Amino acid sequence: MFLHCVACDERYKRDPMLYACPAAGCESPLEVLYDKEYAKVGKLTGEGVWRYQPLLPVKKSVTLGEGGTGLHLCERLGRELGIPRLFVKNEGENPTGSFKDRGMTVGIALAQAVGARAVACASTGNTSASMAAYAARAGMTALVLLPAGKVAMGKLSQAIAHGARIAQVEGNFDDAMRLVVELSAHERGVYLLNSLNPYRLEGQKTLAFEVCEALGDAPDALVLPMGNAGNISAIWKGFNEWKRLGRSRRLPRMIGVQAEKAAPIVRTFREQADACRVENPETLATAIRIGAPVNWRKAIAALVDSKGDAGTVTDREILEAQRHLAKTEGIFVEPASATPIAFLRKRRLKGAHTVVCVTTGHGLKDPDALSGAPVEMRRIKPSLAALRKLLDA
Ligand code: AN7
To answer: Which of 18, 229, 285, 359 could be bridged to 333 by S-S, CB 3.0 to 4.6 A?
Structure first.
């Protein structure tokens, strides 16, 4: 096992404390690669993330039962969108309600292995909720840096409940990220669990394995939201490893979606630009309110190499898609997670028969997002007549 820099192609020995490339002026995120022993993966047993133990960089230590989420065939929505087999891989079914748990169970094992006294992350909410839960279970201190006033209530409640030390940073996510990277560079006992951490991302690649096992092969396309772009990078890596192992025949097109006013990766992809940054990103999908995504090079590679695509959706389209998915298929997701559905509602995918949308977080994470929704919630006298009126309305 070794570390590889996706920007300058340099290789480094396995080192759990090395997150970014140490080459002068590079500082790009690294990825975990495996030597030949990786090819001898035997029979896989159990369920969830740790079913794939032979393909992960550590042994299981702290688990809450992450992974193994439902892959739901959505026939009604699929018919509407002209997709014969549309699936929703619902990551809201993870223990803390988001896909972050897949990575955190692996990341916390590394933190324990290096004897860290605390774990830390900057977060738009879900990473902090997940890290706080796994740190609690591991008996470690959790330090979370949140953009002040911009984290959904459900996520904040989780960090509070699990006893994290919470810093509300005056600034946006990108400012918080810069600060936590600085902290982890100066405090060796503090282990960084953002998606800059290549080991954490190894856990997130297991989503690709689960999808391939469930469908018998990779889908034609996989659509998901992009924020810091750790997830698209990890899942694309997973599809490639699965194919290299001879367990699938093909690779999917990777399709990344961002909110219109927080879309640095879409812009870089379209304009083939050499930088990736948006000042003052804005969206009500606060999970992906990110202007300087650390994993942008990996994301662009996934989009280009998979012959995929990237696009934006407006906040209004996000909210409509969120409610539509909940009403037509019974799957309630947070705004960021509705971006793939919003994208498919306005852009047809040519020749895509089997499509998987990854819904990254549960709808209860951000109950305020529904505050503007038109609702049938009448106050009535406790009488049958009044009730019948509502039923027949
Ligand atoms: C629901 O928690 O960045 O592209 O700090 O919470 O891997 O960053 C969350 C991101 C999509 C984007 N959907 O994933 C954080 C954080 C939801 C999310 C994303 C996030 P990446």
So the answer is: 359
- Give which of 61, 160, 143 is closest to 108, Cα–Cα: 61
Q: Yes or no: say if 177 and 123 are a contact pair by the CB < 8 Å rule.
A: no
Decide: 196 and 160 in contact? Cβ < 8 Å: no
Q: Which residues in the chain come in under a pLDDT of 70? A: 36-39
pLDDT in tens, 179-217: 999 999 899 899 999 989 999 999 999 999 999 999 999
CA distance 195 to 103: 9
What is the structure's pLDDT at 376?
74
Question: What is the structure's pLDDT at 373?
Answer: 79
What integer pLDDT is reported at residue 390 of this predicted model? 86
94, 144, 146 from 156: Cα distances, Å: 17, 10, 9
Query: Domains (ranges, CATH) in the chain?
Result: 2-46 (no CATH), 71-98+200-370 (3.40.50.1100), 100-197 (3.40.50.1100)
DSSP assignments along 70-84, one per residue:
-EEE-HHHHHHHT-S
Mutation pick for ligand 1 pocket among 360, 362, 365, 366 (CB with most ligand atoms within 8 Å): 360
- Using most ligand atoms within 8 A of CB, pick from 194, 228, 341 the residue to mutate for ligand 1: 228
Please report, in angstroms and rounded to a whole number, the separation of the first and last CA atoms in the chain: 63
Atom of ligand 1 nearest to the CA of 121: 5
Q: What three-state secondary structure class fits 173?
A: helix
Please give the distance of CA 367 from its chain centroid, rounded to a whole number: 19
pLDDT at res. 40: 72
Dist CA 342 CA 259 (whole Å): 10
- Find the 81 Cα to ligand 1 centroid distance in Å: 25
Angle, to 10 degrees, between the axis of helix 230-244 and the axis of helix 296-305? 50
Instruction: Please choose, from the candidates 7, 4, 11, 16, the residue with its C-alpha nearest in 3D space to the C-alpha of residue 192.
Output: 16
Any residues with Cβ below 6 Å from ligand 1, and which? 98, 123-127, 195, 225-231, 287-288, 334, 336-337, 360-361
Q: Full-prediction pTM beyond 0.85?
A: yes
DSSP string, 295-332: THHHHHHHHHHTT-EEEEE-HHHHHHHHHHHHHHHS--
Residue nearest ligand 1's atom 12 by CA: 227
